[in-house]
Amino acid sequence: MRVARSLVLTAGLLLAVAPRAFADVTLFLGGTTTPTVRQARGVAVGGGLLVLGFEFEYSDTQEDLAEGAPSLRTGMGNILLQPPLTIHGFQPYFTTGAGAYRESLNGVSETQLGGNVGGGLKMRLVGPLRARFDYRVFRLRGEPLHEVVHRIYAGANLAF
Predict the structure, then answer these.
(1) How, if at all, do strands 148-159 and 22-32 pair?
(2) Which residues fall within 8 angstroms of residue 135, CB to CB, at 6 or more apart?
(3) Number of domains comprising the chain
(4) Which of 36, 37, 46, 76 is the most exposed place for a label (fewest CB within 10 A)?
(5) Within-domain flag for 61
(6) b/e code 104-135 from CB counts within 10 Å (16+ = b)
(7) Better pLDDT: 17 or 69
C-alpha cells in the first residue's frame, strides 16, 4: 500500500511538472533536384517534448521519362532537434532519420532502405498556422539510379 501510494504521488508530480507536449502536421510541395528538378509532394506528422521531436514523413516524386529521372517514394521516421520557442517568429530545426524508399523508372524499380539528414525553419503565421521550409539529403541503399538525392520544399504546417 505504501509503495503504491508513493508511485501514484511520484506519477502525479511528474505529470504536474512535465513540459507541454506539441504535435503538428505539414502538407508540403517542393522539388527533388536529383538528377533533374521534379515536383515532390507529401505529408509529415510529428510530435515531441521540449527540444526533441519525432515525425513520420511520406513523399512522392513523379518520374520524368524524357529526362531519365526516376520516380521516388519515401517513407521516413525522423528525429528532430528544435528549440521549444520561436525566435522572432522562426523555429529552426535539424533532422535525421531512416526508412524505406521505392525508386522507379520506365517499369524498372528498386525498393530498399535509406536515410536522410537535413533541416529547416518553421515560421509562425497566425494562430497555430505556420509555414515550413525544409532541405533534405537522402542516402539510398541497394542499387538505386542515384545514391544521393536532394529535396527542398515549402509547406503549410498546423501545430496542435
Answers:
(1) antiparallel
(2) 118, 119, 120, 150, 151, 152
(3) 1
(4) 36
(5) yes
(6) bbeeeebeeebbbebbbbbbbeeeeebebbbb
(7) 69
- The pLDDT score that the predictor gives to residue 6 is 67
| Rounded-to-integer distance, Cα 105 and Cα 70, Å | 5
CA distances from 17 to 14, 67, 97, 155, 160 (A): 5, 56, 30, 33, 20
CATH code assigned at 39: 2.40.160.20
Rounded Cα gap, residues 24 and 137, in angstroms: 22
Report if residue 57 sits inside a domain. Answer: yes
- 126-153: average pLDDT: 97
Closest Cα partner for 57 from 148, 145, 136? 136
| Look-up of cell digits 508511485 | 7
Is 17's pLDDT higher than 70?
A: no
Is position 38 within any domain?
yes
Domain limits at 148? 20-159
Q: Would you state the pLDDT for residue 18? A: 44
84: DSSP letter: S
pLDDT digits (tens, 9 = 90+) for 29-72: 999 999 999 999 999 999 998 899 999 999 999 999 999 999 99
Q: Is residue 14 part of a domain?
A: no
Provide mean pLDDT across the span 124-128: 94
